[in-house]
Amino acid sequence: MITVRGLKKKISKDFHLEIGELHIRQGLCVISGASGSGKSTFLELVASASDPDEGELLWNGIPYKQHLGVLRSQIGYVPSEVIAYEEMTTEQLLRYMAGLKGNLSTQSIESVLTLFRLVDIRRRRMNSLSVGIQRRIILAQAFLGAPSIMVMDEPLKHVDPFEAERLRTLFALYARRNTMIIADDDPNAWITNQHLTMESGKLYDNTTY
Ligand SMILES: Nc1ncnc2c1ncn2[C@@H]1O[C@H](COP(=O)(O)OP(=O)(O)OP(=O)(O)O)[C@@H](O)[C@H]1O
Fold it and tell me: Which SUPFAM superfamilies does this entry report, sorted A to Z (predicted)?
């Protein structure tokens, strides 16, 4: 379980994130909200890609700061924009990310190549692939090593509808055993355990338990 406690993050003079106490449980949690409401800012904090100005995040009761190294090996992160890594092939990018995550096995690379239907394009450079396929590669790197916490910012943006449907099912299965947090404008497209709404930097839990 992820606990958010008194989190504050100032982004500009016009915008800051401010979240009191909130718990995100195992399962699939969707965050929706208007453009600019702060979803990406919050997901960056949950993924430990940025630090709060005040407050803290805890994973199973332990503050992020106390076990950041171990924690990061347990976080998969899909940012909102595709990071191009233009010159790398699919396989090179996955090997690079597997290295960053602590030299994960070849088997773990092979399994995400299969899971995200990337086997046939493993030797293609990122800059020769469509935005939709690039997105699938970015999704694949997040699943390397099967992390317990999956943080995904509009994961199915640019992905074709057929593939998106397949991936929704895959994510739902994955979320049965893990904590998956997804920012998406359409919460109804997902079978959620928890639904949060972001409004002007504040996060509300709309789940009916
Ligand atoms: N690097 C930045 N510099 C200045 N302002 C920023 C920066 N990044 C985000 N913002 C501002 O912070 C606020 C929150 O942005 P954020 O991207 O977190 O919202 P969002 O809900 O994810 O929006 P979207 O759905 O459009 O991605 C917005 O007002 C945005 O303009």
Answer: P-loop containing nucleoside triphosphate hydrolases (SSF52540)
Closest ligand 1 atom number to CA of residue 33: 21
- Give nearest CA residue, ligand 1 atom 18: 38
Instruction: State the average pLDDT for the chain.
Output: 93
> Whole-model pTM?
0.94
Residue 208 has which token pair? 């009916």
Does the beta carbon of 36 sit less than 6 angstroms from any atom of ligand 1?
yes
Residue 82 has a pLDDT of 66
